[in-house]
Amino acid sequence: MTWENQLKKNICGIEQLKKYIKLTPKEEKQLRKAAEIHPMSISRHYLSLINKKDKNDPIRRMAVPSEEELNLLGSYDTSGEAENTKMPGLQHKYKQTALILATNRCATYCRFCFRKRLVGLPNKEVLRRFDDAVRYIKKHKEINNVLISGGDPFMLPTRLIEKFLEKLSPISHLDFIRFGTRTLVTFPDRILKDKTLLNVLKKYSRKNKRIYVVTHFNHPNEIAEKSINAVAQLMKHNIIINNQTVLLRGVNDNPRTMAELQNKLVSIGVNPYYVFQCRPVKRVRHHFQVSLFRGYNIIEKAKKKLNGHSKRFKYIMSHKTGKIEIVGIKNNGIYFKYHQAKNSKNIGKFFKRKLNKTGGWLDDFQ
Predict the structure, then answer these.
(1) How far apart are CA 349 and CA 322, in angstroms?
(2) Which 8-state DSSP code applies to residue 94?
(3) Is the full-model pTM beyond 0.85?
(4) What total of structural domains would you count in the chain?
(5) Closest CA to 323 of 193, 130, 189, 147
């Protein structure tokens, strides 16, 4: 079966879900309400990772809608994506990086997604005219890398992915190209069952201009045999793989789980890159975000269980002003540093705020 046909078997409705996961009448009613607002889609592979007997299973929490999504606390655009959009589907927030939103589709719709406003929904933010984006990137020579994201760009036909690489690779001032994808986690057959995709990626991942895959493992239980094989295939085809994790309440918000995740990633050849503070997204913040005070302590305790390779990641908040590293807490202060910034003058800036033990975002601190 092709990967496209496999996706047609995704669990997309509550009636389908009830065949695999037991729901009370109350839960069913609440889940229907949540799924009407933000659609549900769960791949068969990802569904197979859920412990059906555990209502608090971390994979279930990430994939199955919940009543908590009805909470409207937060914003749909917490990182200022709208103000950095240069044309539909192209953002340019940081001087060196162009971000392309190539699709609104994913193999599984994560309930914590920070782009809930567009993923799986009709929208005007996805790239329409790729040639216009290429012209913009060619014109702006300060851009030295492109991140192709979405949605999940590996949901696009392989011929379209090849077209992207065909147009972007010859641009002389680009040093590398990245794909942001969670298919290694939620739908590894996208990699394993499409040799053409692997060959296309290998063709354009050259010794002086590499292709990177930035993937997204959040829990050790996601590192299944198929995912390990997909990682191995990408590495065999000259692809470098980095991982970004989101710190999520009820999923990985304890040092043991976080340490186990990072150690396992290194063992299969995936480089820890970022651990992101969960963004204060509407229908996400209320039930997935932990406070920065608690988050910092979780990360520091986890690092004590890690070796040098597995603790290379930075604990980062992707704020509208830039990527802000949570550096430390001392006495009544919390310390931050701009790892990346919209205003390049702020890069490296170190600053302090009064500690607020319940604050989950920079805007919660004075």
Answers:
(1) 11
(2) S
(3) yes
(4) 1
(5) 147
